[in-house]
């Protein structure tokens, strides 16, 4: 029997030393660190581990199985499901054959998925389970080109006998037979791969129209990965938890590209419901989460503190005050007095350490957030307890790699400095323009759309409006297309206002209106968990979201939050005229299944404005209430109606505060 080292050498035979594609990097790791954990997955409560050599063998078998079925260079492979090691291996397998991985959002209904499948001309798909198989079989009725579907989890699949179906294990067994008959084939295909070949196609969220397939090459994602790895000094010893959608650019950067650049370990949770438990068990050293996850964590902490004993509450609030005063400075290694250091050390023993352990963040060296603005108070909280939380800025078209925040130079209201190898400048209208090697190759079959975002000088037009401070830190104001003016001439940046509202744990979503109007008004979605807990502690009974959203006490709570936002806006010279005058709480949560949000939870602003025109008219006509009936879609595909008589409330505004600085 061959030794592990000999097997690794055989597996990596003829792999180029440059490692200029992801399959070549995979084979290098199999040779250099064959037993180092590459992937872990929690299954039935037990963590399963695969080393890099084992992963390379799994990928080889899968790639040869796809080849045996007819998958060829230049073809696109759809990948659909939760974060699973075998689905990441499917990406690598497609790339080994010169194909393109096309991950799709696993929570998309079949009706939403069909556009991407048809647009990408998908005939091969590898999916997680029965749920995804059912969607594709439904789609196949109107899109017959879908001819090969492999599934990972065989639970519930016993009575499925459609000829296009095969299990993941059967596909790999087919591949091993093919590999034995054609032993040179796999490495020949890997060595044919070039850095400028398209490696992955990620579909945009479709905020303003049909999604577009963003084609990214091996070179572009590897440039972003190498830049981030060197910036934060990442090594093969990192552990990350992979739980965000595989179709999202951030997950592809962190859980795939950077993992293959460094050789660190990717951990996949058992399910979406066990993420926080699995987070505590793994204790990642490198962690990414959107602001909402960090907000939910803090909300959970504050709710638990309300249940704690009086002594524990006093300890918590005392040491959190110490952390707010000196925690960030200690994290940034700035000079702090000896007594403050001692107080902080005691706080770390009694409060910060146990708190980080409960959150699963005890080992985190670097934590990132992106995708939306994060509130300064929230940002300050995590950094004050010793978690090195930073922001990054990027887009699907830039491999999520434009700006990063350097250690020791963190500003709560910026997204940082231009990342290594990236050039950032502002157009005359304030739009952020980007040039780097981590850029899209093209929009798939959309040369017109590609030409719209790439100018003659090679700059990508992000569509975001921003400003630089005197140190070169970039601040994102809003989407450039959404920035407008009010009738009195004030700049109106709805996303900027909405983010300030969403900094409060009681507000889950907000939509602000004010373009070409005399005042700003807003829709609010309450956070069901936070407001529900708040209501229960005050003995306020409610039967569900619609009932809770209509409670006067809830309106008073949200009005108080909005008044604080108005007071904050009054201190900002450019934004003081955009304080919120009136608001209502929507009778239902904005939902991707109702087309009100994208799958990445961005508001489809124009759609919302059209759908709820009657409510907007009521806000601006001075009415005190408005009745509305709204159709909703349930998870099982059924449709229903939600109706309510919504209250409309006027909010206190403040005179502009001059010379606030």
Question: What this model shows, in words?
Answer:
- The chain is an alpha/beta fold.
- The chain folds into 3 domains: 4-270, Rossmann fold, CATH 3.40.50.980; 289-393, no CATH class; 484-650, 2-Layer Sandwich (GMP Synthetase, Chain A, domain 3).
- The chain contains 22 helices and 29 strands.
- Strands 4-3-5-6-7 form a 5-stranded parallel beta sheet, with helices on both faces.
- The longest helix is centred in the middle third of the chain and has 22 residues, at 310-331.
- The protein starts with a helix and ends in an 11-residue tail after the last strand.
Please supply descriptive tags for the structure shown above.
22 helices, Rossmann fold, disordered N terminus, GMP Synthetase, Chain A, domain 3, globular, 661 residues, single chain, 3 domains, alpha/beta, five-stranded parallel sheet, five-stranded mixed sheet
Give the SSE map:
Elements: H1 4-11, H2 22-32, E1 37-43, E2 46-51, H3 52-69, E3 76-80, H4 85-96, E4 100-104, H5 110-119, E5 124-127, H6 130-140, E6 148-151, E7 165-167, H7 168-181, H8 185-192, E8 198-203, E9 213-217, H9 218-232, E10 239-241, H10 249-262, E11 265-268, H11 275-282, E12 286-288, H12 291-307, H13 310-331, H14 338-359, E13 366-369, H15 376-384, E14 389-393, E15 403-404, E16 417-418, E17 423-426, E18 431-435, E19 442-443, H16 447-453, E20 460-468, E21 474-479, E22 484-485, E23 491-492, H17 494-502, E24 507-513, E25 520-526, H18 528-537, H19 545-549, H20 552-569, E26 580-585, H21 605-611, H22 613-621, E27 625-633, E28 639-647, E29 649-650
Parallel strand pairs: 1-11, 3-4, 3-5, 5-6, 6-7, 10-11, 12-13, 13-14, 25-26
Antiparallel strand pairs: 1-2, 8-9, 9-19, 14-15, 15-16, 17-18, 18-20, 20-21, 22-23, 24-25, 26-29, 27-28
């Amino acid at each position: 029997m061959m030794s592990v080292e000999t097997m690794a050498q055989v597996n990596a035979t003829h792999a180029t030393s440059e490692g200029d594609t992801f399959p070549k990097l995979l084979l290098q790791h199999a040779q250099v660190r064959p037993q180092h954990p590459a992937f872990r997955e929690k299954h039935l409560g037990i963590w399963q581990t695969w080393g890099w050599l084992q992963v390379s063998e799994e990928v080889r078998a899968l790639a040869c199985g796809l080849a045996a079925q007819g998958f060829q260079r230049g073809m696109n492979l759809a990948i659909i499901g939760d974060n699973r090691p075998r689905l990441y291996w499917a990406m690598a397998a497609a790339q080994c054959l010169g194909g393109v991985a096309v991950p799709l959002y696993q929570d998309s209904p079949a009706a939403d998925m069909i556009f991407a499948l048809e647009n990408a001309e998908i005939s091969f798909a590898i999916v997680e389970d029965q749920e995804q198989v059912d969607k594709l079989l439904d789609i196949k009725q109107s899109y017959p080109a879908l001819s090969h579907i492999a599934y990972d989890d065989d639970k519930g699949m016993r009575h499925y006998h459609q000829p296009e179906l095969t299990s993941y294990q059967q596909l790999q067994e087919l591949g091993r037979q093919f590999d034995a008959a054609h032993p040179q084939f796999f490495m020949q295909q890997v060595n044919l791969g070039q850095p400028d070949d398209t490696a992955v196609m990620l579909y945009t969220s479709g905020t303003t129209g049909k999604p577009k397939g963003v084609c990214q090459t091996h070179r572009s994602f590897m440039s972003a990965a190498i830049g981030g790895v060197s910036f934060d000094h990442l090594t093969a010893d990192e552990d990350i938890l992979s739980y965000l959608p595989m179709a999202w650019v951030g997950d592809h950067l962190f859980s795939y590209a950077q993992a293959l650049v460094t050789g660190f370990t990717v951990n996949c949770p058992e399910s979406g419901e066990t993420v926080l438990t699995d987070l505590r068990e793994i204790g990642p050293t490198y962690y990414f989460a959107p602001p909402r996850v960090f907000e939910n964590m803090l909300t959970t902490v504050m709710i638990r503190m309300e249940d704690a004993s009086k002594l524990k509450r006093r300890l918590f609030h005392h040491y959190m005050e110490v952390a707010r005063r000196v925690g960030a400075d200690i994290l940034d290694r700035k000079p702090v007095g000896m007594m403050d250091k001692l107080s902080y050390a005691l706080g770390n023993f009694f409060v910060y350490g146990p708190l980080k352990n409960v959150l699963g963040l005890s080992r985190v060296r670097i934590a990132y957030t992106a995708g939306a603005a994060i509130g300064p108070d929230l940002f300050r909280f995590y950094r004050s307890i010793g978690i090195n939380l930073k922001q990054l800025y990027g887009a699907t078209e830039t491999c999520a790699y434009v700006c990063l925040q350097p250690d020791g130079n963190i500003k709560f209201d910026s997204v940082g400095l231009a990342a290594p190898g990236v050039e950032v400048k502002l157009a005359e209208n304030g739009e952020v323009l980007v040039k780097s090697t981590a850029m899209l190759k093209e929009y798939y079959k959309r040369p017109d759309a590609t030409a719209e975002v790439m100018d003659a000088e090679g700059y990508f037009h992000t569509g975001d409006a921003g400003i630089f401070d005197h140190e070169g830190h970039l601040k994102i104001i809003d989407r450039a297309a959404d920035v407008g003016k009010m009738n009195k001439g004030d700049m109106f940046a709805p996303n900027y206002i909405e983010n300030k509202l969403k900094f409060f744990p009681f507000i889950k979503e907000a939509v602000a209106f004010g373009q070409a109007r005399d005042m700003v008004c807003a829709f609010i979605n309450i956070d069901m968990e936070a407001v529900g807990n708040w209501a229960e502690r005050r003995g306020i009974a409610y039967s569900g979201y619609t009932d809770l959203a209509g409670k006067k006490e809830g309106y008073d709570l949200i009005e108080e939050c909005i008044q604080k936002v108005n007071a904050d806006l009054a201190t900002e010279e450019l934004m003081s005229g955009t304080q919120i005058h009136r608001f209502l709480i929507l009778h239902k949560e904005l939902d991707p299944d109702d087309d009100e949000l994208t799958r990445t939870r961005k508001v489809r602003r124009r759609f919302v404005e059209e759908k709820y025109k009657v409510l907007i008219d009521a806000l601006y006509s001075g009415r005190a209430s408005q009745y509305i009936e709204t159709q909703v879609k349930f998870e099982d595909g059924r449709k229903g109606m939600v109706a309510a008589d919504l209250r409309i409330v006027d909010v206190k505004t403040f005179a502009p505060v001059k010379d606030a600085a």
